[in-house]
Every structure is written in C-alpha cells, then in structure tokens.
Write a structure and sequence with these properties.
The structure holds two protein chains of two kinds. Chain A is mostly helical. Chain A has eight helices and two strands; from the N terminus they run E-H-H-H-H-H-H-H-H-E. Chain A folds into two domains: 73 residues, Fumarate Reductase Cytochrome B subunit (Up-down Bundle), CATH 1.20.950.20; 105 residues. A two-stranded antiparallel ribbon of chain A has the order 1-2. The longest helix of chain A is centred in the last third of the chain and has 33 residues. The mean pLDDT of chain A is 89. Chain B is α/β, with parallel strands linked by helices. Chain B has three domains: 221 residues, Rossmann fold (3-Layer(aba) Sandwich), CATH 3.40.50; 79 residues, Cytochrome-c3 hydrogenase, C-terminal domain (Cytochrome-c3 Hydrogenase, Chain A, domain 2), CATH 4.10.480.10; 43 residues. Chain B is built from 14 helices and eleven strands. Chain B has a five-stranded parallel β-sheet with strand order 2-1-3-7-9, with helices on both faces. The longest helix of chain B is centred in the C-terminal third of the chain and has 41 residues. Classes of the chains: A mainly alpha, B alpha/beta. At the A-B interface, helix 2 and helix 7 of A face helix 12 and helix 14 of B.
Chain lengths: 232, 362
Amino acid sequence: MALKAVKEVKRKEYYIFSPFLRIFHWIMVGSILILFVTGLLITKPMNVSTTEPFFTITSMDLVRDIHFVTAFIFTASLILRIYGFIINKGDRLFPRVWEGHFYEETVDVALHYMLIRPHHASFLRNPLARMSYAALYAMVAIEILTGFAMYFMTNPSGTGGILFGWVNLVLGGEMMTHYVHHYVAWFIILFAIGHMYMVVRAEFMEGESEVSSMFSGKKILAHTPKDANELD
Amino acid sequence: MEKRESLWEAYLKRGLSRRSFLKGCVALTSLMGLSTDMFSKVVEAAENKPLPVVVWIHGHECTGCDESFIRSASPLASDLVLNNIALEYDHLLSAACGAPFEAHLDETITKYNGQYILAVEGAVATKASGVHCMSGGHTFLHLLEKAAKGAAAIIAYGSCAAYGGIQAAAPNPTGSAGISHFVGGKPVVNVPGCPPIPEVMTGVVMHVALFGTIPPLDGDGRPKQFYGNRIHDTCYRRPFFDAGMFAETYDDAGSKAGWCLYKLGCRGPETYNSCGNLRWWQGMSYPIQSGAACIGCSNAHFWDEAPFSARLPQYGKIGDADKIGVGLGVLTAAGVGAHAVASIIQRNSRDNLLESEDEHKN
C-alpha cells in the first residue's frame, strides 16, 4: 500500500503576475488597512481620558497626515499596476466580459461556491474572482475621487480643487462626499474579508498555490487551466 | 428717476467732501472682498457708473434673508438702499402696495430693460403648476420668468433661491427648487446661507453695481471672495481640532473651554462661507463661537443631512454606518466560517469518492 501522505502529482508552472502587480498588491493591502483605521479615527476621534475634559490618543493632525500620505502612496502605486498591465500579459486589469464563455464559466464557478457542484473548471484567472476585483477597483476609484475632492477643497481655485471639486457638486454637497467615502470604505473591508477567505479556501480545496502566487507570481497547477492559452 | 446719478454725484448733492467719498470707496473695496490695488477702479466706477436699478423679488421663503440684509453694518443697509442703489421694487421694503405697485414693476422692467439687477429671495414652487407660491395674483414662477428676461445680472440670495431651501427637504411637497433653471439660462450668482451674512449680501450687490460684472464665481456659482474657504479652514477653534481636543456634549468641560465641536456634528469641514473670517453682527460672533455646532446652512441639501449633532446619519435603533459595518463584518466572517466548514465536508466526500474509485481500479 502506497504511503497516504505522499502523492505523486504532475504539475505545471504558469508565470502570470509581474513583480509590479505583486508589489502593488501588497502596498494596497497595507494602505487599505492604514486608511481604514485612520479613516475611522478621523470620523470618530477616540478618547484617551475617562474624565472630563476628553481628548484623543493621537492628534487629529497626525492621524490625518498619516491618512493623506498613505492615500497618496496608494494612488501612486496604481502606476505600478498599470505598468505591469502594459508589459506583462499575465497582469489583467478587468475581466473579459465581452467574451461569451466568460459568463458560462462564472456560473460554473458560482455553482461550485454554492456547494452545488463538487468542482469548477481550473482557471488561471477565476472569472468570479475577477469580477470581484473589478468591483474593488470601482470602489477604489470612488474612494480616490471622493477623497481628493475633500482633500483639495481647502483651496477650491487650486489645481486639485479644479480637478476634483466637481465630485462634490455631482454628489450634491460635500457632506454627501464624506458619507460616500465612509460607506464605500466599509464595503472594501467586507470585500477584503471575502477575498482573504476565498484565496485561502482555494488553497485548501485544490492545493494549487493560490496564496503563494501573490508572492512568487507563479501558479502551479495540476489541471490544465481553461484559459492557459491567454498567456501566449 | 430720469437721469440716474452716480455715487459721486450722490455725495456731491448731499454736500459731502471728496475725502469722505474716498473713505467710502475704501470701505466698499474691502467689503467687496477685493484687494486694495483695486481701489482706483472702485473710485473710477463710483464716479462714473450711474446707480444701478435693482428689482428685488421674493418667492417661497421666510424673508429671513431680508432680516439679515437690513442688519448690514458696512455699508449700512439703509445707505445701500437709499444712496448706493436705486431699489425700484421690493416686496418687503416698499411702502407702496397693490395694483400701482405691480404696475411700477412692469414699468421698471420695460424702462430699464437689460440694465437692472434682479435680486431673488426664495425658491420656486414647481408642483401643482406653482400655486404653492403666489405673488400679485400670479405664480412666483411667472413673476421670476418675467423679471429675469430683461435682467443684466441675477443674484440668488439665500439657500432657498440657490438650492430650494428648507421647504425642499424630503419629501419636498411643493417641489421647491433653486431659481437657476427658471431664468432662461442667465448666469446666477448664488449667495447661499440661511440667511447669508449681511455684509456678504450687500458686498455682492455692490460688486455688481459698481463694476457691472458679476464677481468671480466658483463651480457652484458662488462668489469666490466670500465662499472660497471652508468655515473649518478659517475657524478659530481649528487648533483644537488638530490637537484632538473635542467637546463631547454641550455641557462638558471641553465645551466650556471652547474646544472643537466636530464630534457634536459640526458641519464646518463641509461648509463654504465667511462665518469664520467676516463673522456676524460686525464681526462680533458666529454660531461656532457661541458654542453651537455649524449646521452647514449654506450647503445644498443641508436640510436632508440629519442629524446635525453627529457626523454620520443614524438609522433608527440600528445605529450609524459604523455599527452597521461592524455587524456586516461579523456576519460576513460567520458566513465565511460556515462556508469553510461546508467546503471541507464537500472536499472530504469528493476525495473519498475519488479514492474508492482508485481502489476499484486497482
């Protein structure tokens, strides 16, 4: 009887994520955590003292500065992502929704996630996951627009104010910009919880290097993925 | 009024000196929010420009803007109305009334066609053909369209004329709206506020009167010199904000010490107005200085952004977005956990199936 703990499986290595995408990804992880925590502290400054008068742990000035600097770094890191998209076929910004098979594959994956099908077909780029990343990018875009709309309006006549000031008018007032910025931040955190779970789940269900691919850039698959030809 | 006199001529007629005229011009320059190098232009305009004809109409509103306007100290509202402009028609300040008064409006509009300044207070009631706001036997919309046609410039005084005002609060039963869509595409100077600061009201009309042009406007049609800064960025309590020193309630030690009112829902960080620098009643005070959080009365839709006492909207007993967010986060985590357990069961049954198939083959 063969050893149960040792199995011989043939696997192929696919290089998909460029270093630019990977660096961007980890900058994004750090930025979102920092931005979310500092953002909550800006909305509701936390008290340190328990007797009157109350004041906050850190100065608002410092918390806001951390928030702003992180926001600038995060926005700038998008350049890495776009550069990777230009030079490397493996990096993809948005799912190919214009291709008909995309939808069948999405349904296939969704049925598996609903525990109705035991497997889904193997993909380099899981179509359902890709949809969620498109949603994330949309949310990040909203955060950037609303964030800079508030940030630059200290000087409405300045370049930043002219570039982003219209957001406040479109939303019907700057208070609404604050609300949208705050609410979308929560949705990004909900996405992050789901994303982390799905990645770890893919790892323990299939054992196909889903987690390590964001460090090494490689996916090591036992099955030939349906979209393997897209790397050529 | 056949020949319209200039400000200088008005001074001469009253036997006032050149010196007091120049002093008046200095005051005008600063109250219009202009830098002092514009002084010579102001003098030139005051010498030559005939006093502008102003038609001032009132729509769906409380006339609180007038209450503010008549308290302007520099210039005195009485000076402005009696000496600096030719106020031909005003619902509230006119002694005349009835048919002759309405006839005078028609006369003014025809006589000074294309020359008069139209000042509008109050929103337009649009529902039910506009019957919620009647003026002189017609709807206010009718009056506005009539008066706007020949106006050289239009000034929307107050948040009602600019954005619809408090009566536009959801569900907006009268269909109140700002005037900008009802003036035939003419540019409108928005002077929002509930009410606007008196000196801002007089300053804007004086700018239009003296230069014959509308002041530089921001993207929302507000004069930049008065609405170019947030109250937050000009607030004297801003250092307390930066340092993280906040009043938690209206009667705690922080409140008594004059600390920042941000946590009490102050709208200063979203509100563009001159409260922080011009202040009210000759610079005496403004809401935040008196210890009350700003409610953002010069913002569009401020009336629908309740509660004024918190930074985030409250959803009944559930709480605000942060509480809901934590709840959703916990739910998501729980859902993810349940899905993980189900997935493991599914994988094990799948693997057992594969293994038993393998054993059959062997």
